[in-house]
Amino acid sequence: MSVKVQHLTKTYGSQKAVNDVSFEAKKGEVLGFLGPNGAGKSTTMKILTCFIPQTEGQAEVCGFDVAADPMEVRRRIGYLPEHNPLYKDMYVREYLGFVARLHKVPNVPRRVGEMVDLTGLGSEQHKLISALSKGYRQRVGLAQAMLHDPEVLILDEPTSGLDPNQLVEIRSVIKQLGKEKTVIFSTHIMQEVAALCDRVLIINKGKIVANDSIETLQGRVGGELLVTVEFGQNTNANKLQQIRNVKRADHLGGNRWRISSASSNDTRADIFRFAVDNHLTLLEMHKEVVSVEDVFTELTK
């Protein structure tokens, strides 16, 4: 495993910011790290990146313990913190070159050029960082995190401040990186989770409350499967409730219905047969999916 966390705890006085957290992240995986403000996300990330020590427990990155071998861990991690610290009096390309030399990256000009191209900084590379918009500063932060080609990327709200076009570009970069590296990122944008994550880790009040794929969590929270249908002719609730596994049929107006069943039973094939047997034209049928927002709210409320 690229990242392995066991019984991690961080205490500030009498408050447990992180409380007995355990999880793993492997190479080629994009792990979404979600939770309300103050849940313990940034604290966990700071421990993994050796910025602060844990109170109890153990964390390893690429086989190196964050407490015993912090320099080896840092060599293997690229980190973009929530509040992106940059030297604003430096030019973009100058700053990236400076960071590359700190990491002893070979052929600095070539590597800086690759990161400029990858993060879309070409038009801004000769500007002072202080003159950049928040979105472009975020791109500079992402570029510096990837300069030394780390095995693990830890990104704390990496798309904060990006416009819709920039969002699409950076999502594409993160998705591509996730094929060959371990990527752990936090976000409050639920569309990002659905678009990027192979797995979701949800933390609330310092404890892990969910660790699974989005699809599994949606099934766990939903409790029932909902199908919206529209027929070409009239029917009624009594007939629809006779379909196998159907619990309830709610009239939505006209010839449209919302049909519910137990979450493990997909009734769409049975609804189709019902329409054929009753000489009904099926104009529309789609399964309603529990949103990522619904999952997040249910698990953290």
Please provide a written account of the structure.
The protein folds into two domains: 3-218, Rossmann fold (3-Layer(aba) Sandwich), CATH 3.40.50.300; 222-300, 2-Layer Sandwich (Alpha-Beta Plaits), CATH 3.30.70. The protein is 34% helix and 30% strand. It contains eleven helices and 14 strands. It has a six-stranded mixed beta sheet with strand order 6-7-8-3-9-10, with helices on both faces. Helix 3 packs across helix 4 (108-118).
Q: What is this entry, summarized?
A:
With 301 residues, this protein is of the alpha/beta class. The chain contains eleven helices and 14 strands.
Overall strand count: 14
CATH-defined architecture of the largest domain: 3-Layer(aba) Sandwich
Overall number of structural domains: 2
> Mind summarizing the main beta sheet?
6 strands, mixed
Mean pLDDT: 90
Order of helices and strands: EEEHEEHEHHHEHEHEEHEHEEHEH
Anisotropy-based shape: elongated
What is the CA–CA distance across the termini?
A: 31 Å
Q: Label the structural class.
A: alpha/beta
Assigned CATH class of the largest domain: Alpha Beta
Radius of gyration: 24 Å
> How many helices does DSSP assign?
11
Beta-strand portion reads 25-35%
Share in helix: 25-40%
- Write the CATH homologous superfamily of the largest domain: P-loop containing nucleotide triphosphate hydrolases
Contiguous uncertain segments of 5+ residues: none
Strand order of the largest sheet: 6-7-8-3-9-10
The CATH topology of the largest domain turns out to be: Rossmann fold
